What we know:
The complex is a heterodimer. Chain A is built from 3 helices and 15 strands.
Amino acid sequence: xxxxxxxxxxxxxxxxxxxxxxxxxxxxxxxxxxxxxxxxxxxxxxxxxxxxxxxxxxxxxxxxxxxxxxxxxxxxxxxxxxxxxxxxxxxxxxxxxxxxxxxxxxxxxxxxxxxxxxxxxxxxxxxxxxxxxxxxxxxxxxxxxxxxxxxxxxxxxxxxxxxxxxxxxxxxxxxxxxxxxxxxxxxxxxxxxxxxxxxxxxxxxxx
Amino acid sequence: xxxxxxxxxxxxxxxxxxxxxxxxxxxxxxxxxxxxxxxxxxxxxxxxxxxxxxxxxxxxxxxxxxxxxxxxxxxxxxxxxxxxxxxxxxxxxxxxxxxxxxxxxxxxxxxxxxxxxxxxxxxxxxxxxxxxxxxxxxxxxxxxxxxxxxxxxxxxxxxxxxxxxxxxxxxxxxxxxxxxxxxxxxxxxxxxxxxxxxxxxxxxxxxxxxxxxxxxxxxxxxxxxxxxxxxxxxxxxxxxxxxxxxxxxxxxxxxxxxxxxxxxxxxxxxxxxxxxxxxxxxxxxxxxxxxxxxxxxxxxxxxxxxxxxxxxxxxxxxxxxxxxxxxxxxxxxxxxxxxxxxxxxxxxxxxxxxxxxxxxxxxxxxxxxxxxxxxxxxxxxxxxxxxxxxxxxxxxxxxxxxxxxxxxxxxxxxxxxxxxxxxxxxxxxxxx
Lengths: 207, 432
């Protein structure tokens, strides 16, 4: 019958010491690479302030993390620059710039990366829904205004908290909650600070 | 063939050895030599290794729970260092145990290391509030576990890797809706290669199940949501493919990985054939399913596999009845597609086909000395008869006639079988 070359036989020539060391270096390296990819965003990314938005209650708090949603999570392509039609799971680029209150507002949404604007940043996101309810100026969902909006996730939607302390954030009114995110030049975003009523509650060091 | 049979074979051999020594067929010393050779062959986890593995699993679970608690008293960096030290420690101990010749202990430590790596990935996700993209995390865990399985020759880590690949592919399939997840093969091929060259049955079965899972997700979610009987035909063809590959490997004495395809294929075959039988007798369900391109794909894989099995197998008494049963199984959906299944004649043909398939599997099991085959065939036969009594073909009188003809045919075959078996005079146990 078919005899496959055995991986274990191929490795037989490499000494056990080297194999053990290689395994340790590779696995620890993978974890450290993951750490560094996020830490570099926190260290050198451009800061933006994000207003959180209410979400349906079931998404508020799951186990040991809080689910966050932002005003820029719901976009109406018809009212923004850029492309107008999107598909679910599509990668999109959202150009944001600070509004009058200093909080980031979406200016345009694109299928391919737009040039970096002056005074604004471009966030990379993924379309999770293409028939979402629109959002009124207060940031509340308003399904009467049609279902032409798209929902976008930026990788900023989970906030892990120590066991049993999620309630405090959960019970805080969403409008008092503000997130400062760091955005790398490639559009990757990471949560840097959590504020309530403008006061610093959680600060995320790079390490 | 005997080399491939594991647990049940050992039990049977143990009983036979005692009998043979008692009857003076072999010397007690020879029996002891056979037992020793069998014990050295391994195959499963040995007891100290198993207990060690459980210990390793508990330690890894403790690390996971510690990470999940997100205890703020310890700085994140310290937690990260602890994870890295735990990882290095577990892998280091594994290498040390292997150098001392304790392969079981080394496997347990390496498995623990792979699980600590998984906890480390979760910790980093928590530290940086990474989105809850669990399929992405599962892929990372799979890659780490594959590295451990490869470099430290760990079977436990290989099982973790295959399960994690399955979770990742399943999660991505769930997101991707109708698209086939072809990227699955990228990490699965190296995992399959490792599994094929290992002699651990758990690894073989997990790999077979992961592959079966991929076939199951191939039609895409919408196909399952608007259920169509074409799916049943697809499942039947994939099951036949698995049975043919597993049976061929069993007959040719390897590879061991492929022999693990047989039981899962048999389960799929029995399930889908019984559903076909139940629905043909139900007027509202006896409609033809759509033949999707996937059906042709599955048939294009299954038919050559079945024919190849029939031609290549060494033990014809085992292979031919089984190949015939598999060909008849593949005919069942064709009958539905032809539109004949709604007529009385169609119902009789399908019912007769399914009973014949059951008999074919039993004959193959007896011919090859594979008890699980005989068991599967008997089970299919029993369920089919009960189904036919419960939902009759036509009236009860028609049903009675059907059983009478079937019974008479079987008795005729049984009386003819002694002459048939005498033609193949080679004894079963002497098969290569």
